[in-house]
């Protein structure tokens, strides 16, 4: 069984002898570029500058030898780059103001202020005491009293989207890279490029404003989502036939419907304004590539819409933030067992990982992963990214604990 076979078997709800594992297949299962050099050293691997492929969250793109050392089974194809092999022509040295010798795709994006703060593209900032870039209100608008809702001109928006569809050149370049990736690895290929739905609870007007718009202007939201899904379906019809046989998991949506304790908007809002549009796109992708698995990232306490996410046509949900919302990991697994795979949730990231001992981490991973992986339908990773302060010994312990679980498979 190849590593790709192991992943697809698990995602198809069959048990595997070894639990499949992921680090960095997408930008919520990764590791801080500040933590990555320490992990490389702790694994006894040669030092190297981390390739920072998400310079907002400051995430490192793990190399193949790191994936090998942690027993990981997935590579990424995201933003025109991959970690299935080296692409030195796409990466350039940059040291983030002397804090982190690294490699980025565009060093000209950054400027340094007198106090050491780094500014990216003239907007987001990373002070010397921070490990990520951010903006005021996370770059999202706030409504003042009596301020009108910030609605788009939907006619102009439709014209803009039609003018920015995927091009023949983009299709050719993406397909060529996908073929190279498939030929270079027996790992499953996680793919994100040009397949996004373009909708989410905060996708257009910010997570603090868009739920209000959903409540007050549902007809506007229906038309907005119709435009987004028409655009997405055009893109996948143009691209996916050209990458057939080269990609295994496709992410169409990265959303955050949950807070620490509850949903951000009501389940009924999801059912009426989101579920039908997600389903249109997901059904089309399944038609174009019948064997592919469709991945949704959705943070927070989303337990109450798990059934709706299944009905939206998603095959996989991440990050499985079971400590949020008062439901156990057992309840999450039992709610979707055999219907939707879970990707993540390997341990309590907010408590056990930062505050527990290595023994605590190992114990919880074995307990949680043994249950989540029973009957298949599970991929191991952390709940969201491994942050800069996480000790490498804990990272190694969690992956090795997950890899120590063995099942008898007929």
Q: What is the name of the CATH architecture?
A: Alpha-Beta Barrel
Distance between the termini: 13 Å
Beta-strand share of residues:
5-15%
The overall strand count is 16
Widest sheet: strand order? 5-4-11-12-13-14-15-16
Query: Helical proportion?
Result: 25-40%
Give the helix tally: 14
The low-confidence parts are none
Oligomer: single chain
Characterize the largest beta sheet: strand count, sense, and whether it forms a barrel. Answer: 8 strands, mixed
| CATH class placement | Alpha Beta
**What's the helix-strand series?**
HEHEEHEEEEEEEHHEHHEHHEHEHEHHEH
- Secondary-structure-derived class: alpha/beta
Radius of gyration: 21 Å
Number of domains: 1
Looking at the structure, what is the overall shape?
A: globular
- Give me the CATH fold name: TIM Barrel
Mean pLDDT: 96
In short:
This protein has helices at 3-11, 36-42, 64-70, 154-163, 168-184, 210-216, 218-239, 267-273, 275-288, 306-311, 329-336, 352-355, 358-372, 392-403, and strands spanning 31-32, 52-54, 59-60, 74-78, 81-82, 92-94, 102-104, 110-112, 118-120, 124-126, 188-191, 249-255, 293-298, 316-318, 341-343, 378-379. By secondary structure, the chain is α/β, with parallel strands linked by helices.
Structure description:
With 410 residues, this protein is of the alpha/beta class. The chain has a single domain (3-95, 143-403), classed as TIM Barrel, CATH 3.20.20. It contains 14 helices and 16 strands. It has helices at residues 3-11, 36-42, 64-70, 154-163, 168-184, 210-216, 218-239, 267-273, 275-288, 306-311, 329-336, 352-355, 358-372, 392-403; strands at 31-32, 52-54, 59-60, 74-78, 81-82, 92-94, 102-104, 110-112, 118-120, 124-126, 188-191, 249-255, 293-298, 316-318, 341-343, 378-379. The strands form 4 sheets. An 8-stranded mixed sheet has the order 5-4-11-12-13-14-15-16. It has a 3-stranded antiparallel sheet with strand order 1-3-2, with no helix packed on it. A hairpin with a 3-residue loop joins β9 and β10. α2 (36-42) crosses α14. It is globular, with a radius of gyration of 21 Å. The mean pLDDT is 96.
């Amino acid at each position: 069984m190849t590593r790709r076979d192991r992943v697809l078997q698990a995602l198809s709800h069959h048990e595997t002898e070894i639990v499949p594992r992921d680090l960095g297949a997408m930008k919520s299962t990764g590791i801080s570029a500040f933590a990555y050099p320490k992990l490389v050293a702790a694994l006894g691997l040669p030092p190297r500058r981390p390739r920072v492929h998400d310079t907002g969250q400051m995430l490192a793109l793990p190399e193949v030898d790191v994936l090998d050392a942690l027993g990981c089974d997935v590579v990424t194809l995201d933003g025109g780059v991959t970690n299935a092999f080296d692409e030195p022509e796409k990466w350039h040295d940059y040291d983030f103001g002397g804090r982190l010798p690294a490699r980025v795709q565009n060093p000209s994006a950054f400027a340094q202020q007198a106090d050491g703060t780094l500014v990216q593209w003239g907007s987001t900032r990373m002070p010397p005491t921070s490990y990520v870039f951010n903006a005021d209100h996370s770059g999202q608008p706030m409504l003042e009293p009596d301020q009108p809702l910030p609605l788009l001109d939907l006619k102009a928006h439709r014209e803009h989207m039609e003018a920015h569809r995927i091009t023949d050149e983009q299709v050719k370049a993406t397909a060529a890279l996908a073929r190279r990736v498939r030929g270079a690895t027996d790992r499953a290929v996680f793919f994100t490029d040009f397949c996004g739905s373009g909708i989410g609870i905060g996708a257009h007007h910010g997570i603090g404003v868009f739920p209000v718009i959903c409540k007050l202007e549902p007809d506007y939201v229906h038309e907005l989502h119709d435009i987004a899904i028409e655009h997405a379906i055009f893109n996948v019809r143009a691209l996916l036939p050209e990458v057939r046989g080269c990609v295994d998991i496709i992410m169409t949506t990265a959303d955050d419907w949950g807070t620490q304790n509850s949903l951000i908007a009501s389940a009924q809002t999801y059912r009426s304004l989101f579920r039908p549009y997600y389903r249109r796109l997901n059904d089309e992708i399944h038609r174009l590539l019948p064997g592919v698995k469709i991945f949704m990232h959705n943070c927070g306490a989303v337990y109450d819409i798990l059934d709706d996410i299944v009905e939206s046509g998603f095959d996989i949900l991440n990050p499985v933030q079971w400590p949020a919302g008062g439901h156990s990991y057992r309840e999450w697994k039992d709610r979707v067992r055999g219907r939707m795979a879970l990707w993540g949730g390997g341990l309590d990231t907010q408590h056990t990982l930062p505050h527990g001992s290595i023994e605590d981490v190992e114990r919880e991973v074995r307990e949680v992963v043994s249950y989540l992986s029973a009957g298949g339908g599970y991929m191991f990773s952390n709940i969201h990214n491994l942050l800069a302060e996480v000790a490498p010994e804990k990272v190694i312990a969690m992956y090795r604990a997950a890899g120590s679980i063995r099942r008898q498979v007929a």
